[in-house]
Amino acid sequence: MKSILVTLFVAFALSSGGCSRSDKQPDKTVQTTPGSNLRADAERLQRATAKAAEERRRAQAQLSPTPSTPKP
């Protein structure tokens, strides 16, 4: 009985492995020009970086008061 089950399992594994999905044609997807997306992303990144730098400068200015001259 055990050998029959093993034989059936092996037969099923071999038959299911033979049905490969690689025979199907890949789905056609619409590709946009990568340049326009990259340009927009680069501009957004530059704006975000500039905004973060400005916020860091403001936070730094609030944390550290203007340095006073040391008294002799």
Structure keywords:
72 residues; 2 helices; elongated
Short summary:
By secondary structure, the protein is mainly α. The chain is built from 2 helices and no strands.
Topology (SSEs and partners):
Blueprint: H1 2-18, H2 34-63
Indicate the overall shape: elongated
The total of beta strands comes to 0
Number of helices: 2
Instruction: Output the structural class.
Output: mainly alpha
Strand content: under 5%
- Alpha carbon gyration radius: 33 Å
Distance between the termini: 100 Å
> Biggest β-sheet: count, sense, barrel?
none
Succession of helices and strands: HH
Please characterize this protein's 3D structure.
- It is a single chain.
- The protein has 2 helices and no strands.
- The longest helix is centred in the last third of the chain and has 30 residues, at 34-63.
- The protein has helices at residues 2-18, 34-63.
- The termini are far apart.
- The radius of gyration is 33 Å and the shape is elongated.
- The chain has 72 residues and is mostly helical.
- It is 65% helix and 0% strand.
